[in-house]
Amino acid sequence: MAVQRTFSIIKPDATKRNLTGAIAAKFEEAGLRIIASKRIHLTKAQAGVFYAVHKERPFYDELCEFMASEPIVVQVLEGEDAIAKNREVMGATNPAEAAEGTIRKEFALSIGENSVHGSDGEDTAKEEIAYFFSGLELVG
Ligand code: CMP
Fold first, then answer.
1. What residues are in contact with ligand 1 under a 6 Å CB criterion?
2. Residues near 138 by Cβ (< 8 Å), separated by ≥ 6?
3. Residue range 56-73, pLDDT digits in tens
4. Which of 10, 11, 93, 132 to mutate to test the pocket of ligand 1 (most atoms within 8 A of CB)?
5. Of residues 5, 11, 104, 117, which has the active-site annotation?
6. Which of 36, 54, 72, 127 is the 20 to 30 A CA-CA neighbour of 48?
7. How confident is the model at residue 97 (pLDDT cuts 50, 70, 90)?
8. 117 in active site
């Protein structure tokens, strides 16, 4: 297994409920290192660019509205097999299907307000990291 980097978002439903630290602890307990982190407030247009792949989906407008509704915390996580490990720690997109102990099982409110986002592959991880962070901000 190789050391990888993946991109994570702690979403508005979670920052609003003061869950940033509890979610970061889940990453660290799983052996993922938070090598970059910042709290930002996206515009709806910026959220739209990030989620452009979902443009044709019926939930796209609602998703962009939600992602711009409150601050988010964007992070880069590093570790062995980090992309898959993060997806395991997050749990299924729909909290009703998420496994016990996962972030979405414990914290998510619904499929839309599901507390966290994580990259789904190496190419998307690179693109998503580059959208939010400069190289100087990644401190491994
Ligand atoms: P995320 O992993 O950030 O990737 C796309 C997001 O779209 C997903 O998490 C959900 O928050 C959201 N999403 C997916 N399916 C639905 C749905 N049926 N209704 C509302 N939002 C959804």
1. 54, 59, 62-63, 93, 111-112, 114, 117
2. 5, 35, 36, 76, 129
3. 999 999 999 999 999 999
4. 93
5. 117
6. 36
7. very high
8. yes
